[in-house]
Amino acid sequence: MANNGTIYLGGGCFWCIETIFSRVKGVEEAISGYMGGDQENANYKDVCSGNTGHAEVVKVVFNNNIISLSKILDIFFHVHDPTSLNRQGNDIGTQYRSVIFYSTELQLKEIENKLLKIRNKEKSEIVTEVNSQMNFFQAEDYHVNYYNLHENQPYCNLVISPKITSFKKKFKNYIKD
Does residue 48 have an active-site annotation? Predict the structure, then answer.
């Protein structure tokens, strides 16, 4: 039986984060959704309004025997800017904030250690929020596997494709076969 962990990562548009983590060896699921708000339900239209408090996140289920949480976090911090408050590139609003929702106290300690190392290297302030797991609302079906279905769409081509290239270059040993 697999030794699975689950972490929820928000770093801008969930299409980017889902696309990257769906390619990571040891990641069993990368599911786009919403988390961190104060409404009982979340959907794309409401979350995009910026009034729900939710962030676009990806539920990442990973096999600890294949990839560590530390490496998951390395990838996460490589593919988004943790110093950019409530935005990633042209995606602006609290729904695009840098955020991690952890599932266990051990994960929290690992996240805190990783953030400390990053803060010691960065010249800018790290704005990544860290919260305990909250209600996760899976994104609508049309968001699932969005990049792979719309790779030539301008947003995918201009925003996501360069992140995939950078990820593949830096983490070539962690790419699924």
Answer: no
